[in-house]
Description:
Elements: E1 11-14, H1 18-29, E2 37-40, H2 43-50, E3 66-69, H3 78-86, E4 96-100, H4 105-113, E5 118-121, H5 126-143, E6 154-155, E7 162-163, E8 170-171
Parallel strand pairs: 1-2, 1-3, 3-4, 4-5
Antiparallel strand pairs: 6-7, 7-8
Amino acid sequence: xxxxxxxxxxxxxxxxxxxxxxxxxxxxxxxxxxxxxxxxxxxxxxxxxxxxxxxxxxxxxxxxxxxxxxxxxxxxxxxxxxxxxxxxxxxxxxxxxxxxxxxxxxxxxxxxxxxxxxxxxxxxxxxxxxxxxxxxxxxxxxxxxxxxxxxxxxxxxxxxxxxxxxxxxxxxxxxxxxxxxxx
Length: 183
């Protein structure tokens, strides 16, 4: 039986370093989590993804069960992405784990001040990096109980119709508007 679009559980990886993306996906592959990771390479794309804007306007599926977020990225940095997520009623319950190379105390303090769920400094050693990401993936995707999805409607990429989570009916128009995305 196919999994309904509204029940697909994905992780959003926001990372501009292609090597770190490859390593993260490789680490998650061992637990069959890599196929559930959607990757964007800057903070602006992450916000577009979460708010169904631009090229993600018609993306299928609910919000991710976890966001793995780098800090130092082009366009919009990780801290600004976190502030936006935690200020939004529809997004603030999504767990956010900062996966960054910064060991700077002010960065750490600022992220926790704005509601990050965990702050992980990327190990430089390949094996340590792989082990850290595996632990993150297993905890957040398998052990942790994700927050329930909000009542926001999702649109199927295939049909272009709106799918209301938790309902079997399909509507032809969007009735719920989201203030930040204009939907």
